[in-house]
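Operator note (shift B, R.M.): manual run for Sulfotransferase requested after the automated queue skipped it. Running by hand, logging everything below so the morning shift can see what happened. Input copied straight from the record, untouched. If output looks odd, do not overwrite the archive copy; leave it for review.
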Amino acid sequence: MRWVACILRCSMLLMLLGLASILANASPIKNDFGHCERVVKKWAFSSLDQELKEDRHTLRDLLFFLHVPRTGGRTYFHCFLKKVYSKSLECPRSYDKLRFDPSKPKCRLLVTHDDYSMMSKLPNHRTSVVTILRNPVDRVFSTYEFSVEVAARFLVHPNLTSATQMAGRLRAKMRGVSTLDIWPWKYLVPWMREDLFARRDARRQRGSDDIKSSGSYDMNEIFMPLHEYINTPIAHDIVHNGATFQVAGLTNNSYLPESHEVRHCVQKYKILGEHVLQVAKKRLDNMLYVGLTEEHKESATMFANVVGAQVISQQRASAMSMENVANENSEQSSLLSDSELENDDHQNSSVDHNASQVASTENGEATKQNMTVEKLMEAYEVCISSLRKEQGRRRTASLKRISPANFSKEGRRHVPEVVLQQIKSLNSLDLELYKYAQDIFAKQHKHTMEKLFAIKWDSMFNNSDGAVLWKVFALATTLILLFLFVNSRRRTSKIKI
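Run finished. Output pasted below as returned.
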């Protein structure tokens, strides 16, 4: 009997051990999701724990242009912001780490691909944020095309080693910032460059120049096809839902240490993406301006009237303040006696230095002070035309190196529907955020147009010619009413007869 009891006990023990093993194997998955959910919710709660700013449409001291790649932000920087901000007011560029002190008063404009986590380094209460969003499918296309285009420029070199070494030497000599220093291109371009050289080497080994393809987005023998590109780990980490992660502050370029774990949890468990989306939406709500790449003309007009007008006003107020300082310095220096000036060289030099500094600043700011919204729009139209021509020339020169590829809107229409649907699926958060941005844009555009109409209507009757205009308007109204009255009396007479 003892041996039977022993067998029973052993069997029970084995069953318990087996059950424990099953539970042990299952628990990491369950616990991992639970851990991720806690991490994401904690981050989202802390990010949402700020009320909407009532004066969010009022420009503050520092303007942070959160530039989402491939949305047309470069055009806004060169053709709008550089027209109203002098170079002395631009903050040093920041692409991989903070390289300036944002508390300095001269730092008034920051334009960068850095994500929203940059706000943790900026004086929040003194900073206004603007951004532009683009249809996510088009943005994926454009990101892919630009990655190939820039990488193709290196094909002038005989091999990858030569190209890499030359790029390093050029970057060391350049005073400006190379594309290879800018997120996300510092990851995407070298990766695509390596792929281009590998495929070119394979063609040479094969000894055949015959290119078989199903269009410019499926040239497997020359460069990575689009359908392959969108399924790579690097595209999943950087490209897909890139706008949402950038606005939320969760890119792999983020300044917040917890952001990397949050991003990976969301990428692993798609259901957690809703928390990120809510944070990104609130960030858009708090922005001074949200533009849309597709609504080009309306976005530009609104930017000039919402952002440009306030920058111009701010610059004029600053210039007037500096003029007052210069006048005060002048008055103070005139009160000093000759003996005081002779015995106080340091004070004299200090006054001269301040006066000359104000004078030089005023000369440098002269063109900015004379700017108006109307002049800004005129300058923008001229600037954007020349900028697009230059971009077109560079694009054509790059694509010649991967001929017969020719990226175009027409070519995009021939991409298989299954690939388009996959892009949409992979960018579900960006699609939702873009819809939300469209609603914000529509409301702000309506408000801006109503405000502009009210201003024009008010100025029409309150300027020097307003009295005459009002009399003409009143007279015309009276004549119209009189005409209607006479006509109605005639009709009444005819009916009586």
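Quick read of the result: Residues 19-29, 331-364, 492-497 have pLDDT under 50 and may be disordered. Residues 2-48 form the longest helix (47 residues).
Leaving this for review. - R.M.
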